[in-house]
Amino acid sequence: MGVGDSQLEAPFALRGPIPAGVWHLVGDGAVIASVDIRYQLIWRSGGTDVVLAAFDHHFDPQPSGFDAVAFEGEAAGAAAAAGAGDLLVLRIIASNTTASTAFLPNGDGANANGRIPYVDLPQ
């Protein structure tokens, strides 16, 4: 999340439907200040957003500086009757913080002692 951003989206083009079931999310990040993060998995079709699953987590900064703070969770989610051209969007929303930049998704993977965020879809 950039300076002053309270929301970040990462879209992925879908090829077809997604079944209902359990979503698995790894959401490691660098934590600059205490912050509440909401991760939403969204089906975007024709300008309409449908939240399929959501995860909430409170993060506190680590004494080691910019090392990633781990988050991993599972949530039950709805099905998406997606077709070609639809998107799956990972939305990350920051709240309850005093810093303009409190959380950065870990794009450095193991170099920051964490994992690059990813999602496993229901099977």
Descriptive report:
The chain has 123 residues and is mostly beta strands. The chain has a single domain (7-120), classed as Sandwich (Jelly Rolls), CATH 2.60.120. Helix content is 0%, strand content 49%. The protein has no helices and nine strands. The protein has strands at 7-13, 21-26, 29-31, 35-45, 48-59, 72-77, 87-95, 103-105, 118-120. The strands form three sheets. The chain has a four-stranded antiparallel sheet, with no helix packed on it. Strands 6-2-9 form a three-stranded antiparallel sheet, with no helix packed on it. A two-stranded antiparallel sheet has the order 3-8. Strand 4 (35-45) and strand 5 form a beta hairpin. It is elongated and about 45 Å long. The model has no long low-confidence stretch (mean pLDDT 92).
Name of the CATH architecture: Sandwich
**Beta-strand percentage?**
over 45%
Which sequence of strands runs across the widest sheet? 1-7-4-5
Task: Provide the low-confidence segments as ranges.
Answer: none
How helix-rich are the residues, as a percent range?
A: under 10%
Q: Taking Cα atoms only, what radius of gyration do you get, to the nearest Å?
A: 15 Å
Major sheet description: 4 strands, antiparallel
| CATH class categorisation | Mainly Beta
Indicate the structural class. Answer: mainly beta
Shape: elongated
Q: How many alpha or pi helices?
A: 0
Number of strands: 9
Task: State mean pLDDT (0 to 100 scale).
Answer: 92
Distance between the termini: 30 Å
The SSE string, one letter per element, is EEEEEEEEE
Q: How many structural domains in the coordinates?
A: 1
The name of the CATH topology is Jelly Rolls
